[in-house]
Amino acid sequence: MIVVVLSVCACNNATTNKAKNLADSAATRIDSTVQDVKQDAKMTAAKAESMMSSNPDSDFVVKARLDNAMEIRLLQASIEKGTDKLLKTDAKSLITDHKKLGASLKAYAGKKSYILVDGDNGKADDELATLNKLNKGPDWDKEWGNALVSGHNKAIDLFGKARDNVKDSELKDMINDALPTLQAHLDMMLQLQGKLGN
User: Fold this and answer.
1) How far apart are CA 63 and CA 190, in angstroms?
2) pTM of the model
3) Which residues contact 58 (CB under 8 A, 6 or more apart)?
4) What is the predicted pLDDT for the residue at 28?
5) What is the pLDDT of residue 19?
6) Same-domain pairing of 120 and 171
């Protein structure tokens, strides 16, 4: 009887160990796949950056597209986690404008055969990680407002400098059309920032 019980226990332990080993192996494969995807994204971004160095037009389009995608990620986070009603309303309005800008940049890049990375290539990750450490509420909303003010200041600077550097007249027109919208976004974010107590 004791031998039978010990045999059953040994089988159960072997089965448990086998299941644990399979789970560990699957987790390792998933981690490896995630790392491969991240590496592929970095290589695509590196290709895009190497293209940028010799062409101010493609340089601007690639940077603007990445920054725009980052802003969209931050705006989407506010709809999910923001608590201030005006913050959410403003974010929805801004997302619409940023999606239009992203589509324009993508269409232009397609005509010129510029290589673009889908998404923001992780540009929003650090800011989102900072936000995710905060509980929903006033602190989260304030940090988000600060991030959007900073992001729009950088975007206005990028577009303003590019207006003087790009060669293609169509791209100059796109930049001139986008700048007033970006400035209006910044003004909106500054007002919201004041309301949130910054």
Assistant:
1) 24
2) 0.70
3) 51, 52, 109, 112, 114
4) 74
5) 63
6) yes
Task: Give yes or no: residues 48 and 64 share one domain.
Answer: no
Range 69-96 average pLDDT? 92
119 torsion bin: left (phi>0), alpha (psi -120 to 50), beta (else):
left
The C-alpha atoms of residue 147 and residue 149 are separated, in whole angstroms, by: 6
**What is the pLDDT confidence band of residue 4, given thresholds at 50, 70 and 90?**
very low
Number of domains making up the chain = 2
Q: Which two tokens stand for residue 93?
A: 């309005």
Task: Count CA atoms within 13 Å of residue 67 on its CB side.
Answer: 20
Segment among 65-74, 94-103, 123-132 with least mean pLDDT: 123-132
Q: What are phi and psi of 30, to 5 degrees?
A: -65, -45
Residue at which a domain ends, from 9, 36, 54:
54
Calpha distance 58→166 (Å, rounded): 9
Q: Are 27 and 79 members of one domain? A: no
145 with 87: CB under 8 angstroms?
yes
